[in-house]
Amino acid sequence: MKSSEDTSSTDAASFPANESKRTHHRWLGYIFMVSGSLCIAFAGILLKGAKEATKTHMLFLRCILQYLMLVPVLTYRKTNVLGPDVKTFLCLLGRGLFGSVSGVFFYSSLNILTFGNALAIFYTSPAMIGILACICLKETCNVLRIILTIVTFVGLMFVVQPPFIFGGTSEDTDPKGAQLEGCMMSLTAAVLLSIVYVILRKLGPGIHYTQSLFYYSSIGCVVVIVQLKIAGESLIPCKHHLLILSGSALLSSLGQIFETLALQRADAGPIASVGTSQLVLAFILEYLILGVTPNLYSCIGAALILIATVAQTLEATRKSTKCCSK
């Protein structure tokens, strides 16, 4: 029988090994997250490269791909996709509907905006999540969150560059206001995504992520079909664009898988902060591959949104860690 001294010495000897293992997993999580960000950034660049293609076709292909991947997993796990009760089922339906409509608005905005600007506006969603969480979930709203929300919306103004503040620019001379329309589409997508996050937070950890993605994929197919029919577009893209759109859908799905693997190996806060590298990569890749040079105002706005997003993520992680330690 081991004495207390032997047990303590064994624990002390195993501590460095456990700590080394945790560090290894953490760095592996960061690598997965950067890989996922690269995949999603390249997916967006591919999509912008197909200039004449309808961008929501990619979302349609992505939803089909995810659906075909999820059905075997749900069957193997014998998952009840309806959920344990009616309230959960309605929440899952809302998650699928709001998430897929958000995707339609975001990819539609890419028909007008550059990928970097559309993504910068889309990244205002953390600020909106904080506002909705305070209203719907009765979460506390401290001074720091209010300041970061203001910084986010100041950055949004720099990206959108409304003429009544910045004056007329080459991008804002369109008589139909196409640039403003694209900004509103991307902003609507961010609002809908924030609603999705609030719904997921309301559902809690009791629902497996495959159920959530199943509703997103299945409802997404229906939503995109309706959108394409209203727009008078064909459900099947032309052969010239099919390969590019399929590659973009595959990269986007692969990026989501990498992000899931990253969240399983490292703390959510730092991982989410690393994930904001998508915004920086979007501007860099769009310049290197497509030759699109962002103006100074767009860079300032994207930087403000990026700083506010990272700060809000780290603050949320700090509060979560403090609560866990108590």
Write the layout of secondary structure elements.
Elements lengths: L3 H46 L6 H22 L8 H24 L5 H8 L2 H12 L6 H18 L2 H4 L11 H26 L5 H23 L7 H25 L4 H8 L1 H13 L6 H30 L1
Helix pairs in contact: 1-10, 1-11, 1-12, 2-9, 2-10, 3-8, 3-9, 4-8, 4-12, 4-13, 5-8, 6-13, 11-13
Shape: globular
Contiguous low-pLDDT stretches (5 residues minimum) are 169-173
Share of residues in strands: under 5%
Count every beta strand, where a strand is a DSSP E run of 2 or more residues. 0
How is the quaternary structure best described?
single chain
The radius of gyration computed from the alpha-carbon positions, rounded to a whole number of angstroms, is 22 Å
What is the H/E order?
Answer: HHHHHHHHHHHHH
Structural class by helix and strand composition = mainly alpha
Number of helices: 13
Could you give a short account of the major beta sheet? none
Report the span from N to C terminus: 35 Å
Share of helical residues? over 70%
Mean pLDDT across all residues, rounded?
Answer: 77
Name some characteristics of this structure.
326 residues, mainly alpha, globular
Structure description:
It is a single chain. With 326 residues, this protein is an all-alpha fold. Helix content is 79%, strand content 0%. It has 13 helices and no strands. It has helices at 4-49, 56-77, 86-109, 115-122, 125-136, 143-160, 163-166, 178-203, 209-231, 239-263, 268-275, 277-289, 296-325. Helix 1 packs parallel to helix 12 and helix 4 packs antiparallel against helix 12. The radius of gyration is 22 Å and the shape is globular.
